[in-house]
Amino acid sequence: MDIDQNKDDFIDNHVDKEIISCLNFNNPKSFFLFAGAGSGKTRSLVFALNQIRKLYYQHLRFRGQSVAVITYTNAACDEIGRRLDYDPLFSVSTIHTFIWELIRGFDTDIRDWLCTSLKTQIEELKIKQENGRFGTKIFIERQLSIETKEIRLRNIDKVKQFTYNPSGLNQDRSSLSHTEVINIGAYFINNKPLMQKILINKYPILFIDESQDTNKDLIDALFEVEKKNTGVFLLGLFGDTMQRIYSDGKLDLGLNLPEIWEKPIKIMNHRCAPRIVEVLNRIRYIVDGQQQRARTDKEFGFARFFVFPLNTDKAKAEKMVEDRMSEITGDKQWSGTDADYTTLILEHHMAANRLGFLEFFRPLYQMDNLKTGLLDGSLPELTFFTQVILPIVQANKNGDEFAITNTVRKYSPLLKIQKNETEQLLKIKEAKESINQFLSLWSEDNNPRCVDVLKCVKELNLFDIPESLHPFTIDINENDQDNEGNPSDFHENDLISAWSECLNAPFSQISAYDSYVKGKLKFMTHQGVKGLEFPRVMVIIDDNEARGFLFSYDKLFGAKERTRADIENEAAGKDTSIERTRRLFYVTCSRAEKSLAITAYSENPKLVKKHLLEEEWFEDFEVEIFL
Questions:
Q1: Is 425 strand, coil or helix?
Q2: Side-chain half-sphere exposure of 188, counting CA atoms within 13 A
Q3: Chain-wide mean pLDDT for the chain?
Q4: Collapsing DSSP states into helix, strand and coil, what is residue 384?
Q5: What distance in Å separates the CA atoms of residue 170 and residue 574, rounded to the nearest whole number?
Q6: Where are the alpha helices (DSSP H) in 306-420?
Q7: CA–CA separation, 263 vs 257, rounded Å?
Q8: What distance, in Å, lies between the first and last C-alpha atoms of the chain?
Q9: Which residues, at least 6 apart from 491, have a Cβ–Cβ distance to it below 8 Å?
Q10: Which of 100, 174, 215, 530 is at a distance of 20 to 30 A from 328, taking alpha carbons?
Q11: CB–CB of 55/192 below 8 Å?
Q12: How confident is the model at residue 477 (pLDDT cuts 50, 70, 90)?
């Protein structure tokens, strides 16, 4: 029996063979690999790439072709590249880098697209102006935004060559934003036969990791290319729709795929203990019926759910959970001086609130088109603060003049090379005086607002400011707070107001935000832990603290009734707050290898426990209420 059980641990081995059969150049087949949490998706991806190298290396190199692999993060790129010995046969990159390498050099086409896009944006803003109230703060800001876009439109013909840096500031006249690169790429691939031909000739095989979170317009464009070039272009998707966490991912990916596509499925979970796998299976069963198997050589593991009232002292509550988990598991690394567990939170508002950057974070998080860049720290407006301003402020605090000089030399237009030595020395003196004046904003422990920092930079011409932030360097009558309609409602729906509110936050919140998105702090979220795993995990749930409108754990756990909108969206096959919440909960719980503790705060702890038991997610002894 032990032998049979051990065989079960390798029940997914046939999947790699199925993928290899798709990679026959005489009869290539596109595929979608469904691979749930801990199933060894990356291992299968690398195995497939190694087989391509083994079987078709000469075939591809003779034609000057490569295999493209799109991954989710730079860290994932490095890991896959390392496993492949950084072989140039494989082009491993993030989606932004991949698209830029395709479209760069097509400057005339990029210019045409930008002109059309800018004209559309300007027209939409002017329509809002016609319906707005003259003289209000939002009216003035919107007018400044129109003028900024019109200036860019007028100057666009002067740009000879467009530029883009996936990890850079992208703020000068020739630079494209992250969003623009993806939108241009999707449009070109979908509408320009030459771009399709270039893509196919250069990369006859394209693998996409974490495909469920790849921009839906881009995925649709690649589907169209594959459809038109079946037998010539192979598209391989790796992912799990249950782990989709970004709103711009394709909602129905994996459904209604062409009949000729292969659809292999992995059912093992090699990461989590059997008890945790059981919980994960119950969480997702109602969604798609997919169920995983745990390894037979894993210890059974622990999963516990602790419920506290909303008015609980959270620091004390979470210390109680630490002690209980240490007692339950017999694992001293849950509590005390040896504590070594990972805290995961399910909503970014919770991190922003606990770590002190909520004022800065909240307005931008409400804007769908900013959310992805906000969460991975790539928004050019934010990298201006985190990569240019913050290092100077921190270096000044540490008394590191050398670091200040390096940053100024790297980014400031004041230190551009001059014609002669005298002019250069004058510029150095001017730069030094400007940086001293700039740093005086923080003298006597002052904490200036981000907008004050921005205005000072503009006044001193110390650094080039991102184009989209120029409107906020103009002084507006702050006393005129009579905006159009209810200000709080308007801020949730208007990009200009979102930036205005964000920049009104103290600059100190920039440092906390930067540390958070870089994973330097105690708390991590579902985005931050993508692909990671930890022996001990505490998941913290608190709708009240999260203050998000996209998620509701009280609804998921039965403590709050579904709204009419939830019911209508569900009937229409649309995403609902409950399903979004279920996915986030699944992703985060699936990070735990040995023991999982869920700490929830609710208005109705007893109703939460009742629902958990009815759904059979947990046993009665696994759910503890503290009143």
A1: helix
A2: 28
A3: 87
A4: helix
A5: 35
A6: 314-329, 348-355, 358-365, 368-376, 380-383, 390-397, 401-411
A7: 9
A8: 46
A9: 363, 366, 497, 498, 501
A10: 530
A11: no
A12: low
Under a CB-based contact definition with an 8 Å cutoff, are residues 498 and 370 in contact? Answer: yes
What tokens appear for 312 in the block?
Answer: 């609980």
CATH code of 2-103+187-268, in short, is 3.40.50.300
Secondary structure class of 544 (helix, strand, coil)? helix
Q: Spell out the residues 6+ positions from residue 365 whose beta carbon is closer than 8 angstroms to its own.
A: 348, 349, 352, 371, 374
Read off the tokens for 248: 């711009």
Give this prediction's pTM.
0.79
DSSP sequence for 165-215: -TTS---STTBPPHHHHHHHHHHHHHH-HHHHHHHHHH-SEEEETTGGGSB
Q: What is the DSSP string of 38-57?
A: TS-HHHHHHHHHHHHHHHHH
* Tens of pLDDT, residues 99-145: 999 999 999 999 999 999 999 999 998 998 888 888 777 788 788 88
Distance between CA atoms of 324 and 404, rounded to whole angstroms? 48
Q: Does residue 611 contact residue 558 with C-beta atoms inside 8 Å?
A: yes
Compute the distance between CA of residue 538 and CA of residue 326 in angstroms, rounded to an integer: 12
Q: What is the pLDDT of residue 547?
A: 63
pLDDT > 80? residue 190 = yes
DSSP state of 440: G
Spatial CA neighbour of 495 closest among 370, 606, 393: 370
Closest by Cα among 103, 88, 92 to 208: 92
Closest to 175 in 3D by CA, of 156, 190, 192? 156
> Which residue has 């009949």 as its token pair?
259
Residues 622 and 305 sit within 8 Å (Cβ to Cβ): yes
Of all helices (H) and strands (E), which one includes residue 110? helix 107-131
pLDDT in tens, 259-317: 899 999 999 999 999 999 999 999 999 988 999 999 999 999 999 999 999 999 998 99
Q: Which long-range contacts (CB under 8 A, 24 or more apart) does 347-351 make?
A: 347/525, 347/543, 347/545, 347/546, 347/548, 347/551, 347/584, 348/375, 348/525, 348/548, 349/545, 349/546, 349/547, 349/548, 350/523, 350/540, 350/542, 350/545, 350/546, 351/516, 351/521, 351/523, 351/525
- 274-346+526-625 has the same fold as 2-103+187-268: yes
Tell me which residue of 94, 240, 78 sits closest to 590, measured CA to CA.
240
Out of 42-51, 346-355, 545-554, the most confident range is 42-51
Domain ranges of the chain: 2-103+187-268, 107-161, 274-346+526-625, 369-512
Tally of CB atoms within 10 A around 91: 17
Please report, for residues 54, 345, 540, 564, the alpha-carbon distance to residue 354 in angstroms, rounded to integers and kept in the order given.
51, 11, 12, 32
Question: Residue 159's closest CA among 172, 149, 169?
Answer: 172
